[in-house]
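Hey, can you fold this?
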Amino acid sequence: MNVFLDDFGIFLSRKRNRFCIKKGGEVKEIVADDVDSIICCSSGVAFSSSALELATENNIQVIFAKYRGWPYAVLMPASLTGSVRARREQFLAYNDERSVVLAKKFIAGKLVNQANFLKLMAKNRRQTDPKLSEKLYDSGKLIDDANDRISREQGSNIDEKRQQIMNLEAEAARYYWDCVRQILPAELEFTGRITRGATDPFNAMLNFGYQAVLFTEVWKAVSYAGLDFYAGYLHADRSGKPSLVLDMMEEFRQQLVDRTLIGLITKNVIKPNEIIAADSVEEGRVLSKDVIKVLLGSLQERLDSEVMFNGQKGSLKSFIHLQPRCMVRFLLKEADYAPFCLGW
C-alpha cells in the first residue's frame, strides 16, 4: 500500500516495526512490511528521523511532491540494486540503434493501449450511440496507423529520429484526446490535454494520477532494476529531468491512469461538481480531498488488479516492475524488449 500524507498537522513516527501516523488526537499504526511508498504532498507534515530510518531499512521510498508538479525529492536507501554493467550499457546504447528500438517500443506500448481502449469503447457504444462508436473505432485505427509509421523509422541513434517519432506520437495524441473529450460529460469542459498547471477537473485528475502514483511506482521499479533515472531515450536529456522514468511511464499511462479516471467519471463514482476543491490552504491544491481519496483508492486497486501480458498473469504493478528488468536484458543483448500493452 501507498501511505499518502496530504494535510497539515500530520506527524509520522516509528514504533518498533510500525509507522505511526498522528493527527490531532488520532493515531494510526501501519506495519512497515505492508507499505510500498510514503508520499508527502503537504508542507505541513513532520517526520521523525527514526521513521525515515525505518523506511530505508525496508526499501520504502519516501516521495515529496507538490500538487502542481512532479515530485521534487525522493528519499531512498544509499545502496542500490542491479549491476554496474547494465548502467554502462544503458549509456552506451544512447549512441547506437538500441536507443531507437527502445524509444519506438515505449511509444508502441502507449499507442497500442490507447487504440485498443478506443476500440473497446466503440464496441460498448455500438448500439446506444452508433455515430460515436464509429468515430472511436476509426480513431483507434488512425492511432494504429501512426504506430505503424513509427515502427518503420530506422536510425543509428535516437538523436536522428526523436523529432519524427515525437511528431507521429503527437498526431496520435490528437486523435486520442479528442475521443476522450467526446466520451466525457460536457460539464467537465474538457477541451484537450493540458499538462503543466492544469486547473480544469479532468486534466487536474490526470496530472495527479501520473505524478503522484504512476511516476512514483515507475521510479521505484527503475531503481530496483539498477538503471539510471536520468538516462532515457525517447525524452531528451535535460538537467534534473528523469528521462528514463518518463520513458517507461508511457506504456502504463493509459492502462493505469486514463482507464481508471474515465471509468470513475462515466460510472458517476466521481461527479463533475465534486472534483475541484472549494477552498484550499495548500498552495497548488486543485482537487478536493474527497476526490483525492477516491483516486488513490481506485488507482491502488487498478495496480493490484490481475492482467495477462505476454503469456504471463500478474498484477499491473508487477508488470511495472518487470519492464525495467526486461529493458536490462535487452541492453545486455540477452532478449528482445516487448512493450506492455493489453488487448481489447
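Oh, and this one too while you're at it.
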Amino acid sequence: MNIKKESAIQNIISHFEDYANLILSQLSILEKVINSGSLTISEEVLKELNINEEKSDNFEIKLSEKIINTIVLQKPVASDLRKLMACYQIVINLERIGDLVMDIVKFIPRIQDGETYNRMSDVIYNMLLVSVNMVQKAILSFVNSDKEFAIWAITNDEVVDEMNHKLIRKAITKSKLPEETQQLLFSFIHINSIISSIERIADHATNVAEASIYAMEGTDIRHQNHLNETKD
C-alpha cells in the first residue's frame, strides 16, 4: 500500500467534503431568501454570501491543484484515478452552482413588480427545494459510493425542467397587469432568469451524479440517451 498516495487522496476527499458543505450552505441561505418572498436582501445576508463565494473560489483553485498534483506525483491506479477525475469534474460543477446562487441573488432586487413575484415565489421556492435536494443526493452519492442517490438526482432533472416551463406559463396567465407594460415585462425577464438559474443548478447536480457513477463503475453515462436514440 502506498501510504503517501492514500494520504493525498484522503486529504482531497476531506477538503472536497468541506467545499461541498460550503456550497450547500450557500443554497440554504438562498432557500431562506426565496422563501421570505421579499425583494430586499439584508446587508448581513449579502455579506455572508459574498464571503462564502470568495471562499468557494479559493476552494476550487486549491482542490483542483491538489487533484492535479496527486495524479502527476502519486500515479494512482485506475480506480483511484477515476475517483480523482470525477472529483475534479464535481468540484467544477459545484463552483458553477455557487456562481448561480450569486446570480439569483443579484436578479431578485431588480424585479420591479413585487406583486407578480409574490404570486410566484412559493412555486419558485418549491422548484429550488427539488434542485437543492438533487445537489445533496448527488454529493452523497459520490462521498458514500451510492449509485441509487445518483440515479435519483439524474431522474429528477426532468422534473425541474417541467417545473420551469409551468412556471413561465403560470406567470403569464396569472398576472393581473397588462402584458405590454414595461414594468411587468422586466419583472418576467428577471423571474425567468431566476428560474433558469435554478434549473441550471439541477443540471449541475446531474453532472455531479454522473461523475459519481463514473468514479464507482468507470462508466460514462453522459450521452447514453443520445446514443440509444441513435441506435433506434
